[in-house]
Design goal:
heterodimer, A: alpha/beta, six-stranded parallel β-sheet, 7 helices, 6 strands, about 40% helix, B: alpha/beta, two-stranded antiparallel ribbon
């Protein structure tokens, strides 16, 4: 299992991702618990589209960020992310889902693994900043504590 | 009054360091006639402009105005509560309400049937201004003075006549270039900010206001 504190430290301190928004998801509770205002800013959003808009807007102001969502619902993410794809605004999606989610989308996606989580994050961050596309970090049940 | 004219007059009231975000294909084309470096156009995506504007406002010290049709606003009505909760002083929601989906055969929407659309916004804790009084009396100079000194979070309502300006040229800036232009505009510290300027006097001198406008405001407030 990956420690939530290590996850945030890696994402915020090492890769300078500081602005997050999202809709509450029971599977991501360990991540919420370890959020700290010293290294990041999190906005609870009314829905996924608002979370996406907030993170996209913050990117325009110079802040890298991501959204935290529950991917078990059948979102049409490609449609939801259409704005970012057209304007080439990169951002991270930290999604609670299953390994099937990794295969479902065209944009860069990784399944978070305990032994390689830092490499997983580095890969996705590098990829989305280069290609200016959304990037998905899928977190399976029990992977974060 | 037609939307095209309102946008034209409103843009004149913006400061050089203000950001203006427009949404909807026709509104974007109308605003593009008065293009400025701080303008940003979202032609083909609905329900994203207001949250996007709030995100920009959260990370920036510039005033962010988002111009939105009531149909688009209805899709993401919850953004009003999000703006209220954010307590951002630099976000301004300008709702241009013509009561119909103009691009879809003028099909009516529910905004005009709402009992008190202004009251809803007010009760969410937002400052609400009805600028129709300025339109009624053609007080554009007063309106611009007011806009220049406005501090958020604010919702501005305009009742707009149905109809679009035809034969306008397409926006010839690519979406990626628009993004780049806005990022550079926001990052440009030399432009300064209008949001933290302390206003020492009243934002509008009461003696300057047309008595008829004041009467209208009083009547409107009492209802």
């Amino acid at each position: 299992m990956v420690k939530a504190k290590d996850f945030w430290n890696c994402l915020c301190e090492k890769h300078d991702y500081r602005f997050f928004a999202g809709v509450i998801c029971p599977g991501l509770v360990p991540l919420y618990k370890k959020m700290t205002g010293e290294i990041m800013h999190y906005v609870p959003a009314a829905n996924e589209r608002i979370a996406l808009g907030l993170v996209s807007g913050a990117y325009m102001s110079g802040f890298n960020g991501g959204i935290l969502i529950d991917m078990r619902f059948a979102y049409d993410l490609t449609n939801l992310f259409g704005f970012n794809i057209d304007f080439r605004i990169p951002f991270l999606v930290i999604g609670y889902g299953t390994s099937d989610s990794v295969l479902a989308y065209d944009f860069p996606t990784v399944l978070l693994k305990e032994t390689t989580f830092e490499k997983n994050i580095s890969y996705i961050v590098k990829k989305i900043n280069k290609e200016k596309v959304p990037g998905l970090i899928v977190i399976e049940e029990g992977m974060i504590q | 009054m037609k939307r095209y004219r309102i946008i034209k007059e409103f843009i004149k009231g913006l400061k050089d360091n203000d950001v203006a975000i427009f949404t909807g294909k026709e509104m974007c084309k109308e605003a593009y006639q008065y293009d400025r470096p701080g303008n940003f156009y979202i032609e083909n995506h609905y329900g994203i402009a207001a949250p996007f504007a709030l995100g920009v406002a959260m990370g920036s010290d510039k005033r962010i105005f988002v111009f939105i049709g009531e149909g688009d606003f209805l899709r993401e009505f919850s953004i009003a509560s999000q703006i209220s909760a954010s307590v951002c002083e630099n976000i301004f929601l300008v709702i241009l309400d013509n009561g119909v989906y103009q691009s879809i055969a003028n099909f009516p929407n529910i905004m005009s049937s709402m009992r008190s659309k202004r009251g809803v916004m007010f009760n969410l804790g937002l400052t609400v201004f009805d600028f129709n009084v300025y339109l009624k009396h053609r007080e554009f100079d007063k309106m611009r003075t007011f806009i220049t000194n406005l501090q958020g979070p604010v919702v501005v309502f305009f009742d707009v006549e149905i109809g679009i300006k035809k034969n306008l040229p397409e926006i010839d800036i690519s979406e990626e270039n628009l993004k780049q232009r806005l990022m550079e505009f926001i990052a440009n510290k030399e432009l300064g900010t209008s949001v933290r300027e302390k206003i020492t006097g009243p934002i509008l001198n009461i003696e300057d206001v047309n008595p008829e406008v004041l009467d209208d405001l009083r009547k409107h407030n009492s209802t």
